[in-house]
Write a structure and sequence with these properties.
single chain; alpha+beta; Ribosomal Protein L22, Chain A; 3-stranded antiparallel beta sheet; 11 strands
Length: about 240
């Protein structure tokens, strides 16, 4: 498991009632409580799927019963497994859930659904750097939403990899998107060496974007395997434990 692995599934491909009935018992008591507090079905579904995905995949990779995985949390809320060196990070939206795993190095992931109707320009004004905002404004109108969510997904993946989450402002790291290259610019206060970072951005189904961030010494020639997970895969993976 030295390589970086990404696992993802689409909410539309999963039946909530079936998953809750067959696999809901895998969640710990705290997760069950959090699930019960969601008011809207779309939020219940995305939470259930993302946490089942994490438990089942991590369980298989670490040879642990998914029900027995016990998370601890950093001060910023990033989960980790006590006495286990594996690095992982998870993300979920109403359309998609994802998980990234690396045995040796810190990693972060974020998936976003490109919502053309959201007032993203107001968000960009508050949380993007000056150059990012200018580039966004100069982007063709019909491509602005995708450009905004591309930058936002990369920012979240990076800050989650660092363990900050959104506890620091997203404008502390800025991105320049070229055709085949992603360049990151860190504010000096973060004390980061750009040569130790690797970023990737993929356009996915259902108009989703998937961004990953890895902090690896002298990062180059990084390979990431992407694994689509279906409802039957989740069920079979657990029942075959």
């Amino acid at each position: 498991m030295d390589a970086t692995e990404v696992f993802y599934c689409y909410t539309a491909d999963i039946n909530y009632n079936d998953m809750q009935k067959e696999l809901g018992h895998i969640l710990c008591h705290t997760e069950q409580e959090r699930l019960s507090r969601f008011r809207f079905n779309k939020d219940k579904k995305s939470f259930l799927i993302s946490h089942l995905l994490a438990r089942i995949v991590l369980g298989r990779k670490l040879s642990i019963n998914p029900k027995k995985i016990s998370y601890l949390y950093t001060s910023s809320g990033k989960p980790y497994i006590k006495d286990n060196p594996v690095f992982f990070n998870m993300s979920n939206t109403a359309m998609m859930s994802s998980l990234i795993i690396n045995k040796r190095y810190a990693c972060g992931i974020d998936n976003e659904h490109i919502n053309q109707n959201r007032d993203f320009m107001d968000i960009a004004t508050n949380y993007f750097g000056i150059n990012e905002l200018e580039k966004l404004k100069k982007t063709e109108i019909n491509r602005q939403a995708e450009y905004f969510y591309s930058l936002w997904a990369l920012k979240e993946a990076c800050l989650k990899c660092r363990g900050d989450g959104l506890n620091i402002s997203p404008d502390k790291v800025q991105f320049v998107l070229a055709e085949k290259h992603i360049e990151a610019l860190f504010t000096p206060s973060l004390n980061e060496n750009i040569s130790n970072w690797h970023f990737n951005l993929k356009k996915m189904e259902y108009n989703c974007l998937l961004a990953t961030a890895l902090k690896i010494p002298d990062a180059h020639n990084i390979e990431i395997s992407y694994n689509k997970v279906t409802q039957s895969t989740l069920f079979n993976s657990y029942t075959n434990e």
